[in-house]
Records
---
Amino acid sequence: MPEIRQDPISGRWVIIAGNRAGRPEEFRRAPVSRVEISCPFCRGHEDQSPPSLAWYGPDRGSPERWEVRVVPNKYPALTGPAPGESHSPWHGESRHSVNDRDSAIEAALFKTLPGLGRHEVVIESPAHVASFSELSDDQAFWTFCAYRDRLLAHRGDPCAVSPMVFKNFGPEAGASLVHAHSQILFLPQGPQTLVEEIDGAERFRQRHGECVFCAMTAREAELGVRMVARNERFVAFCPFASQFAYETWILPRGHNSRFEEATDAELQDAALLLRQVIRRLETVLDQPAYNYFLHTTPFDRQANDHYHWHIEIFPRVSKAAGFEWSTGWRLNAVPPERAAEFLSRVY
Amino acid sequence: MPEIRQDPISGRWVIIAGNRAGRPEEFRRAPVSRVEISCPFCRGHEDQSPPSLAWYGPDRGSPERWEVRVVPNKYPALTGPAPGESHSPWHGESRHSVNDRDSAIEAALFKTLPGLGRHEVVIESPAHVASFSELSDDQAFWTFCAYRDRLLAHRGDPCAVSPMVFKNFGPEAGASLVHAHSQILFLPQGPQTLVEEIDGAERFRQRHGECVFCAMTAREAELGVRMVARNERFVAFCPFASQFAYETWILPRGHNSRFEEATDAELQDAALLLRQVIRRLETVLDQPAYNYFLHTTPFDRQANDHYHWHIEIFPRVSKAAGFEWSTGWRLNAVPPERAAEFLSRVY
């Protein structure tokens, strides 16, 4: 099982997944093969991945005609407990006993937790397409249905308190397989970045009496200078303090803090607007690598009136270098107004 | 002048350096030229960079025989104020007037500050070498002297409250020029990552009555399992909660919170141990790209007994993907004990 370690200074969590890599040779630069001999995600190769946790297609009686399917990750970053192991790792303390000053320091310096969680993969098409932009209307919609249904399936699971849905597309974005897929990682607690975001939104609400996402969405739609696209229930814009060049957010117009409570109509609108935004990015930036993330309220927090679930899309066109890693600041060479100008014009 | 924007939700700062990039074509993948026609950092090409701010060499009377020199960055992320502009941007508020509820929300959503700061480049050799590992003893030492002297030169400058010294080596680490160089960026306030680190160290001191860096250094030297190398005044080890594969820290054995107060003997030991660690990484990982960072107390904070200045080295052998960006968690496939085993064995 992977081990979760905490940095004693910053409090940052690290998953040490020692099972995933061996000798240093594995990190050496290898000639990249463009041809995959046999793709485990293509229809007909279902025996190369674990059995489906869920599947979607035109005919509920014909599982072999799946269009979108969900499988456990074969190389999970986090896993469920072994038989007999505790299900609630986060209520315990570190494994070190704390009897005196020295052992208290020892415990603080070397804090670990078992790497409990869930890690699933959503295969977004039976054909060997790569980008989310290539999906059919149905496949895009079913992919979003899969996200919602897997979140609902794990609600109440103590190893799966905070769901993170994300996509890595292209090697620069960390993808290791070409076939269109995304990942759902369920963490045993809300990660720092998300918790800070939700807490920041709560502070904004307390100070200004309004949800920051609603305020932002309304102002951006009104101003227009950072707008990329919109449909009935969603808007897409480049945020004012974009961290990365051409960063784009997709936000629901109506207030909803929990993604898993979205209606079919909302999922449809979100999926199609996401596909459209990615197509725009691919036209303007010539098929860039990209990540997208779905941010939603962890299961152990109340639904609330200050936080929106939303999607953040990052084309990976510039590299985070020493400055970004060391400071937590970002350096973005493309003002979002300029990015939006290019993105809104095409298509 | 660049603009600094603040995300209204997370509070994260972003430098929008719109002068550094133009049309989206600039982000398209270009064939990488391995040959640089003329390197602006080589001796004899001094006219291709701004005049030296400082230089080091065997003969103080012969500036043309420099071995290490410091110049202003030609493409600065942050700059000093224009004539007549305020020197103290961080004492003011945002440029929006706050008269009523709507304009208060407006000000909170679109908070900006002028991009004031300093950005300098340290050229570490007159010859066209690339990695820090290739420097002579003198060049490594003088590079560290340059770091210290530039920090001392800016102490008291309101645009330069928090110095960040960092190196990007190799394109995967964000370097755009091959010739051995590092950067010193002076920020107008301590960046979040550093402030969190210093605050975390202060909490540790309050709780345990000991400096966390001293405690960690002593325990690691005693345990040995994560030790990479040591000399008289410094130790190098892979930290217990390493964020990245083969991450290595260099820490002074004696307590000192401010890098700019280091003695010549300390600078010498630090520089030579850094060079040795990089040589070990290059042997084990076959010439990886890497970043290193110097963390030190910002000028507006007191010297203290809970924080050590130190160096963090990150070989860029794995890519941060969707999971890392979205959660702030790290996923490290190489346990630091295993990394240290390989790194300590070579050389």
---
Amino acid sequence: MSDSVIWANNLLSRAAEERLVRAVGAKRLILGEVVSDWPEPEVDHRARDADIIFGQPHPTDIIESRGIKWAHISTSGIDRYDNEGVRAAIRHRDAIMTNSSDVYYDAVAQHVVAFILADCRQLLFAIEMQRAGRDAAQMEIRRRSRMINELNVLIVGYGRIGRRLAELIKPFGANVMSLRRAATEDDLARAIAQADLPSALAAADHVVNILPDNPSTANFFDSDRFRQMKRGARYYSVGRGITTDHGALADVLNSGWVSAAYLDVTDPEPLPTGHPLRAVSSCFVTPHCASGHHNEDLRLVEHFLENLRRFESGATMLNRII
Amino acid sequence: MSDSVIWANNLLSRAAEERLVRAVGAKRLILGEVVSDWPEPEVDHRARDADIIFGQPHPTDIIESRGIKWAHISTSGIDRYDNEGVRAAIRHRDAIMTNSSDVYYDAVAQHVVAFILADCRQLLFAIEMQRAGRDAAQMEIRRRSRMINELNVLIVGYGRIGRRLAELIKPFGANVMSLRRAATEDDLARAIAQADLPSALAAADHVVNILPDNPSTANFFDSDRFRQMKRGARYYSVGRGITTDHGALADVLNSGWVSAAYLDVTDPEPLPTGHPLRAVSSCFVTPHCASGHHNEDLRLVEHFLENLRRFESGATMLNRII
């Protein structure tokens, strides 16, 4: 391998960090300090001398870099780097930016199927009844249960996670619709034009929000859009918390207009004590763990190493953004 | 339609009963009394004069029937009729017996996927943490989470439910193995010979018991078989409660040998107060609702009516057992 200097600041398991050090060699690796779980990145001037940045650098360190050639972001979402300053810095230096969506998209899609099936099979309600020792709920649970077959699932924000989700739930017999930027068709999901979103919302039994965080998506699901949904529909959000108006969601859940919400992302995370959504029993929140899996750190490093191999041999990079 | 007399004793919703009466005509329909939810059948001498029996007749009424031509059992499991007396009575009269597995098999398969995904995504744990206001569990949940990809799933009792389950989880990337009566192969699941069951149990991350209730399956999963499982594996049971030794299951859950159990069936149902399994926090029980869905009564009637059409025109019957 070449002797390009790599700065990395991932919060890695010991095994994953050892794998990284062993693969690239300690000599050319600068490990940024990690101060806590799930940290906000800190400025680290040493990153500005690196050829390659892997992890969650402070955006300023990319902008002020002396010779960056490639930045590999260790998440799927790139909100922090999705701005003109960073883009210009990368382009100006003829550098590359990649993310780690290969590592995470499948887990998020599986998490959504888990949510949808838990709802269809009334799993959380049934186990709550079990824990409370209430056995008489059998007929009630059977009557509340659904099969996914013939239910309409609308995926709003149809990227890799959305496509994988469609692939996983099609065999159940769901009708899948999708709102996507480009009105291209695929075999998995019927594409909906932006103008037809109200009628798609009115037809959907399950509405899955996988929108990224950008200026056009803030509070995309607001009071109006929730009211366009079919009475009794279910809402899922696994992209970015800021795309949901949480106050409006609490209202439509409390009124029963939306039957249940399953959120892996909120704004802020976690929701503060006393937040209206916390008191809503039909709101189920997992703590931004949809993309998580036990060996994610090791997979993150392997994915970086594969891209490093490609970078050094001039091959096509995986998950290239810029 | 012909004027054969139909006796029926299903516990049907009003809409489903109206559909049945409208379709076959009140004149030739004898409705057996239903005394409670999920009843044990009672002897009803009127059933013995019917040509067609639909529902859950008392087995004696089949054996003592004066001219039964067809019995359509309204469940998937036929434990109650799976004996020589009933079989001989049907055969002796050149009659037909069918069940309702078309109505239920898919829901049960989807319920199992819901169980498996809830486990992989640590959904029940995450929601329990949410309800308790413990937000700090994020990294723990991520580390405990799994994707189904590359996990070994062993299906013990590979009939229609098992095949549908395999069909639904293959797209996730699971390796599916199956123990079945006939050692036939299909594309969905690698067939395991009975002699190879111990090594299959040792390889499986998820063991799904869908065995029917018959003399060879009582306590099939006993202490020995649980000990043959890989440490940390998960156990699912959705066929018949009697196929699991519940005391042995409580032991292996308490010792941590089996990480978690998800049961839709127990013996008895529900488990009595004070039963050892009730105190095990890694044991999740749904109340025999895996096959349930909100329109099951209507589908049950439609399925019967389709078979009635076939019966009266001499076409091949659906779900024929005898």
